[in-house]
User: Which sequence fits this backbone?
């Protein structure tokens, strides 16, 4: 096979930034250096003006398959992931059937290998069918290689059952990821409980419904000594609780989604279900707290909570429409456009930090040095592009960012030494609409200013 060479980029990994070319052979990085000598037959990827980073890892992707393939398939979801710069994604278990059995886990893995666009890593359920009544066969699933477990879409309501799950997690060396929602406080809720929901006359979803479970599980982790990952934090108090737990030395990690640091509850004023999500969009003060948590490391990872739904589902009345938004192809650009933090912070939150949480740090999020697996993302932090739903790779179109101009675009994605994206076009599957790389630089380097799931 020809040697693959990434030329002219700026490397950004755990060691910082430096200008260098990267040569790749047999799925691994074979050389890193300034102006590597050309060899006959080199396959060259242009990285001029771009950042070359370890591949991104999404801790929170809903692929819908098996069971809801009308919304997404593992193939279409993994294509969207590759176009977003992801070399690995964790597939959430709220499928039909749920991922609470080895046979379902192996099916999802096999479909991911068949798609070949990114590593698809299935999460297991904490409880059988995510119903919260009995523990799933954690030991059997762990023996099959599952390392992250969650009932995402549902929080585990029974504190005794959650304690037992954490005790098993400690013994099995696995990580539990909690969807923090006290269900008794959110029945019938449509949006965040606050001034906007009162004005619209819609049932409210109080912040305390999230915060009570965050507090409970922090204390259970303190008691048991097991690690815990908190999914899609959305309130200022949740961030403060996690910050305090980390100060106490607990093995707590957390993620936040791009929509929770870019969109407010006021967008529901038009009763458009594209803005309905679980947990709901919150206030400007909550957004500020999420951004501060990402800036200071309280929140470890940016996770998409990519949640596709077919058009007819999102066109239902607001109280009947399912929660969830697309996220894989816009995550990087929203972070670059909206967060006032160094690129190093953004890449860490998209790459090596989530790779460690997902137990994938042996092959993803690795330093860019000779001998390491060649799972890499090449992106232009200054390229501007418009979000056009019809041009996205997902089978669904439920993005809340339609028409927005964002900054930051993936140019190439490399999985195990093979490009899955070249010049912003996937190398496998339907051709779709290619994105034309702009001539010259973007219209400026200043920070952009943006507008303010059970099945999520």
Assistant:
């Amino acid at each position: 096979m020809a040697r693959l060479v990434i030329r002219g980029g700026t490397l950004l990994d755990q060691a910082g930034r430096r200008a260098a070319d990267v040569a790749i052979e047999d799925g691994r990085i074979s050389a890193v250096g300034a102006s590597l000598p050309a060899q006959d037959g080199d396959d060259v990827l242009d990285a001029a003006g771009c950042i070359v980073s370890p591949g991104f890892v999404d801790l929170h992707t809903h692929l819908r398959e098996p069971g809801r393939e009308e919304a997404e398939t593992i193939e279409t979801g993994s294509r969207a992931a590759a176009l977003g710069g992801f070399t690995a994604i964790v597939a959430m278990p709220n499928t039909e059937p749920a991922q609470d059995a080895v046979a379902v886990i192996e099916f999802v893995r096999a479909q991911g290998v068949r798609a070949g666009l990114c590593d698809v890593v299935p999460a297991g359920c904490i409880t059988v069918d995510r119903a919260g009544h009995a523990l799933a066969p954690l030991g059997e699933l762990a023996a099959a290689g599952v390392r992250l477990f969650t009932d995402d879409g549902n929080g585990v309501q029974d504190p005794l059952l959650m304690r037992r799950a954490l005790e098993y997690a400690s013994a099995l060396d696995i990580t539990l990821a909690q969807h923090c929602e006290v269900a008794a406080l959110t029945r019938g809720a449509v949006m965040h409980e606050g001034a906007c929901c009162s004005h619209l006359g819609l049932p409210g979803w109080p912040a305390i419904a999230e915060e009570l479970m965050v507090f409970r599980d922090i204390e259970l982790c303190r008691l048991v000594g097991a690690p815990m990952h908190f999914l899609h934090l959305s309130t200022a108090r949740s961030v403060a609780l996690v910050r305090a737990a980390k100060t106490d030395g607990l093995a707590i990690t957390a993620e936040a989604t791009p929509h929770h640091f870019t969109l407010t509850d006021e967008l529901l004023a038009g009763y458009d279900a594209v803005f309905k999500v679980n947990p709901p969009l919150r206030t400007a003060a909550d957004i500020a707290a999420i951004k501060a948590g990402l800036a200071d490391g309280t929140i470890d990872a940016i996770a998409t909570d990519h949640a596709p739904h077919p058009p007819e589902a999102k066109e239902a009345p607001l109280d009947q429409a399912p929660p969830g938004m697309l996220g894989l192809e816009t995550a990087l650009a929203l972070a670059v456009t909206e967060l006032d933090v160094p690129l190093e912070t953004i890449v860490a939150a998209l790459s090596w930090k989530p790779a460690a949480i997902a137990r994938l740090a042996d092959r993803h999020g690795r330093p860019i040095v000779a001998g390491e697996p060649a799972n890499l993302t090449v992106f232009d932090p200054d390229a501007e592009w418009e979000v056009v739903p019809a041009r996205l790779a997902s089978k669904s179109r439920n993005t809340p960012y339609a028409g927005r101009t964002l900054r930051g675009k993936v140019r190439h994605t490399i999985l195990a030494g093979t490009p899955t994206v070249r010049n912003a076009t996937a190398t496998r599957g339907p051709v779709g609409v290619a994105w034309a790389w702009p001539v010259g630089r973007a219209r400026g380097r200043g920070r952009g200013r943006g507008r303010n799931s059970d099945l999520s």
In short: The radius of gyration is 21 Å. Confidence is low (pLDDT under 50) at residues 439-453. The first helix runs from residue 74 to 83. Residues 4-52+368-426 form a domain with the Urease, subunit C; domain 1 fold (CATH 2.30.40.10).
